[in-house]
Amino acid sequence: MAEAARAGCVGVQVSPSEGLTQTAAARSAGTTFCINDGTYYASSNIPVQDDDTFTGLYSDGARPEGKGVGAEHIFYTASADNVTIRGLAVSGAVGGNYCEPNCGRGIGGGGNNLLIENVRAYKNANQGAGALGSGAIVRNSQFDHNGSASFSDLAGPRSSAGLKTVASIKVYNSKFTDNYWNGFWCDVECNATEVHDSVLSSNGKAGLAYEISSGPAIFEGNVISANGHLASANRHVGLLIVESSNVEAYGNTFGENVEQGALFAQGDRHPLANVSFHDNAMNGDLTKGCDLSGVSCYKNIK
What we know:
Elements: E1 3-6, E2 9-14, H1 20-25, E3 32-35, E4 39-42, E5 46-47, E6 53-56, E7 65-68, E8 73-76, E9 84-86, E10 89-91, E11 105-108, E12 115-117, E13 120-122, E14 127-132, E15 136-139, E16 142-144, E17 161-165, E18 169-172, E19 175-177, E20 182-187, E21 193-196, E22 199-201, E23 206-211, E24 217-220, E25 223-225, E26 237-242, E27 245-250, E28 253-255, E29 260-265, E30 273-278, E31 287-288, E32 295-298
């Protein structure tokens, strides 16, 4: 391991033989880790500190991978702020009733202003990424095959998702596919939330769920299709807006969602208000809740 520049990454060069967990633990905050191609097995959480950058270096189309072999988080961001994770695959975080919902995450556990870029997070027991602090940005990333029945039990705390947050986030040009429960999930006051030009498809409950939040939220230019196939889910929908306000969804393309393309629902925790759903292509999908007070649906193409 040495301080060097390689393939445009200036920092600590890391190889699989050295182990990423041990290498990250030995360095001070603000380190750039240049992670060379290969698989980095994690039996415990990879610690992340303020201002750290983890950059994967590869040329063959397969990202270097942090792969869990017992870790409850792969990259454990805890209270680390201003962290960047890019060019990596992240998989295999474990968990169950003994630790849920605060385990089983590929990336997460806290920290503000996290940047996730060109990352694939997959086959994590709970979430590809979750419990993020405010100001997260996700670009050009993929979240697939995350979640499990244990983290989706209707009788317990539900948290299973490709990505789940309770804080502000912006998502661009990313994919949320084949996740056990929700694809993208904002829950309980996310404040400013945006999802643009992304694909949310083949998720068990909803492709995109926005719940109990005051916004502002923008969902624009997305493909939201074929969601809601999990029989045990309590809803089967593409776009789910529940007890939220100041939401605008436009320019999205729907199709083949099991029950509704878009569903708007009231409750007693937060008012459903100033929700605008317009100029979307439904491709035969239904909408439900457009007649509710606080919801406006117009110019949508059937």
